[in-house]
Amino acid sequence: MMGGEMFKWATDLYPLNRSLSGEGNRQTLRYLKGLVPDLNIRDFKSGEVAFDWVIPDEWNVNEAYIENMSGVRLVDFSVSNLHLVGYSQPIDRVIEKEELLEHLHFVPELPDAIPYVTSYYARNWGFCLSKNQLDELGDGPFRVFIDSAFKSGAQGGSLNYGEIFLPGNSKQEILFSTYICHPSMANNELSGPVIATALAKLLRTRNHHFSYRFLFLPETIGAISYISKNLQSLQESVVAGWVLTCLGDAGEFSYIPSRTGDNFADRITRSVLQQTHPSYLTYSWLNRGSDERQYCAPGVDLPICSVTRSKYATYSGYHTSLDDLNFISENSLSESLSMFLRIIDKMESCRLPKIRVLCEPQLGKRGLYSNISTRESYLHSTQNLNNVISFLDGNHSIEEIAHKCHISVADTVLIVDELITQGLVYL
After folding, report:
1. Count of CB atoms within 10 A of residue 98's CB?
2. Fewer CB near the terminus (10 Å): N or C of the chain?
3. What is the pLDDT of residues 335-354, one digit of tens each?
4. CA dihedral in degrees (375, 376, 380, 385; nearest 10)?
5. Cα separation, 208 vs 393, whole angstroms
6. CATH hierarchy code of domain 59-151
7. Strand pairing of 173-179 and 211-217?
């Protein structure tokens, strides 16, 4: 399902120099907007405070290379944007090999791989290369050239992100978040945005109960910035959500729970994976590593978890040039899309009633509670009602509430319907 289309999108986006900010991110978002016109391209200004963080200056690169004194380019950003350490500052110098080695990064155990390295929050410069390239550098001296530029908020610098909102019959929202900050990596980057885009394309043509929000953000600082501006609305509206990444390879499906491990998203995920991919892998919250760290942080506490194929940091080519288009496939992308569509279908069959008042509502004035409170009236008339009310937190489906209260789904539906009629509950 849409595997060929998604692979083409990934192929088109692969060469762009994405980072926390810059033209590569804007190019990526403009491309995705061409696929889903509902995508709005927004920004946070460089220098804005987001909780404990400050959004860094925008960074762009024109050219970067290392060459020998004969003018032969030995490492070239134009060949692979992974060759340059992210957020490298400009430099144009001739240096000896001893100094150059202090600024070179490689992976000894993967001699053909170029690592992905960044220095977002401290001004520095550096290059990444394979161990094989390092062995062939020669003795030097070398010319090191980086034509990069930083732009503050006052100069128009910004951190761009994309947002799609698809309203449903309910104001309750499902959130899908993915990131757009990794250059030239196919699984640990582009698989997430292309699957999010495919889900949005399909959902915008359907009638759906829940509303859906898709975020395309640079990892960590993007999520933190978005949460800092939208925390109250997210807490009021989001009933489930997933971080999308590492979904294009052939590895077994892997589930990373939320911090609590038992919100609606967790339960739906486990239910679908048990039915469709019973050999799926389960990781601990302690093995987290993506933006679920922000969405589930104490005080934020959103019902967000993750499903990947091979989990980030578990496959050998992770954060290197080996995570290329050969590592993902049309079939794996299609399987991952189908899995999330099953999650959506299962969610759409559920309703998540939520009480509108704090503490128990005054039922007597609504004719739902005997004005004469006796032991018999409590045990026989109102216990089920109060038990159901105690689970109307917007995090439990009607079926789950029935199970917890040891009553039938039909009786639970009758209770919830009456509470909706009384204006005490919404779906």
Report:
1. 8
2. N
3. 999 999 999 999 999 888 88
4. -40
5. 21
6. 3.50.30.90
7. parallel
